[in-house]
Design a protein that fits this description.
alpha+beta, Ybab, Chain: A, 3 strands, rod-shaped
Length: 112
């Protein structure tokens, strides 16, 4: 006598997989919009230079404390601005990676 398995047993439900993938895609789009709208702040040298940026990597503002400005050492100020921007970009990227990783369950999806 041959044992019968319930209908669909052993075969994935393609429709359920498609619904699940569509929901994940919608969740990811919503999270992406949320991350792009968020504001991030980074600084350099004890907040001598502070940069505010959104999730699209657009610089919203740069604040420079007066004591950071030395007319005889413009290179230092340039370095502080670059360092503050880089710190903020890193914060944006790490936050996006962590939040999207929560949605994808750690799967490495190209383009994210």
């Amino acid at each position: 006598m041959k044992a019968r398995m319930p209908a669909g047993f052993g075969r994935p439900d393609v429709n359920a997989l498609m619904r699940q993938a569509q929901k994940m895609q919608e969740d990811m789009k919503a999270k992406q919009a949320e991350l792009e709208a968020a504001e991030y702040t980074g600084s350099a040298s004890g907040e001598m230079v502070t940069v505010k940026m959104n999730g699209k990597h657009e610089v919203l503002s740069i604040t420079i404390k007066p004591e950071a400005v030395d007319p005889d050492d413009i290179e230092m100020l340039e370095d502080l601005v670059a360092a503050a921007i880089n710190a903020t970009v890193k914060q944006v990227d790490e936050t996006a990676e962590a939040e999207m990783g929560k949605l994808t369950g750690g799967m490495n999806i190209p383009g994210l």
